[in-house]
Fold:
Amino acid sequence: MSLSICSTGEHRVHSLALATRRAVTWCTVASMVPAATITAQTGRVSGSCETCRIEVHHVSSLGEKGETDAGTAVLRTSGGYLFVSRYHGTEVQLFGDDGAPVRVIGRQGQGPGEFQRIQGIALGPLDSVLALDASGRVGIWSSDGVLRRTLRIPPTFISPIHLVWTDSILVVGTSLGAGPSARFALNAVRLDDDTIVESFGYDPAEWNPESAVGSRARRPLAKASDGGFWAAHVGSDVGEYRIERYDASRRLVKEFRVDADWFRRSEASGLYGTPPNPSVLDVLETADGLLVVLLQVTDPEWTSALSRWGAEGGKITSYTKYLDSVIDVIEPARVQRVATLRLDEWASFLLPGPRVTVWNEADYRLDVRSISILR
Structure:
C-alpha cells in the first residue's frame, strides 16, 4: 500500500452563498427556503493544522476471495457487525468485525425481503438495516436479519444510494424518478405511508432534471450528533466540493465549500483522452465532531490502467491504477481542514470508528482499515 500526506498549505475551507457564489460565514436560516433567499455576512475563513496527519491500519478482510467486490456497500452497527451488499447484488451478507461471515439476508426475487438489484443500504434505529432495491422497494430488517416491513419509493437507476434515518423520516440521497418528473437530489420519505413529503437540495431556479445524472444527482449522507444530517456533493466550480448541514427538520443550517487543487473536474469524462471526473463518495461525523470525507480522484498514471489507447478509447484493467482515493478531515466548528491523506487505492465507504473500506485488487475482496487522526 502506498501512502502520502498531502500538503495543506494552499488548501482553504470556507463557506459559500448559493445564489452569489461569494465566500461567507456559516449560513443559518430559520426555515427551508430556496437557496436564492439565503443571506449571510460576507467573509473568508481559511487555515489548516500544520502538524496533523492521518494514518490507516488494516483491521480485517471481508470473506473469501470474490465474496465482495469494489462496488460493495458496507455499514457497521454499534455492535460491530458489518452488513455488506455487493454491487447490484440480491442479498445482504452479515460479517463479524473480524471479517468472518455470520449470515445472509434477502434473496433474488420480487416479493417481500427479495431484491432485483440492491442500490444502497443504511443503518436505522436500534441497529435495524434498510436495503433499497432498484425497483423502489425498501426492506427494513432487524439487526438479527428478520424482515420487519417493506415500503416503496420511486425507483432510481443511480447507485450507490445513501440513506439516513431522522425520526420517522427516511432521507434518500439521490434524485428519484427520471426526465421532467425527476425530483431534487434529497428526498424525505415518511415511513408511515411511504409518502415523499419533501424534495430539496437544489435552488429550484437552477434545477435541471434532464441533466440530473451521475455524481451531480447523488449526495453522500451522514447522521449528525444532534439528530440532523450532513450531505456532501461535487461543487459547481472547478477544484471544490461542498458540504451541507441540515437539522432534524431538514432545514439547511450550514454550508461551506472545500477548495482542493487535486479535486478538479475535466470538461469531459471517460476513456477518450480525458481523465475520469472526481467524485464525493462518503461523509462521516466522528464522535469528537470532526467530519471525515472520502473522495475519488484521478490517478496520475490513469492511462496505464487501460488495455488499449486510441480513438476507440480503452478498457479499464485496474481500478486501483485508474483512480486514487483521498481522505479529507474537516473541523466544522472552526471551518478548518485538519489533515488530508491520499491513497493509491480505491476506497469506497466510511464506517463508524472511523474506518474505511478499500478494494484489495490482489486478493479480490474488500479490506477494512481504521483511520487515526493524529493532532
User: Anything to note?
Assistant: Helices lie at 319-322. Residues 319-322 form the longest helix (4 residues). The chain has one domain: 3-374. The domain at 3-374 is CATH 2.120.10.30 (Neuraminidase).
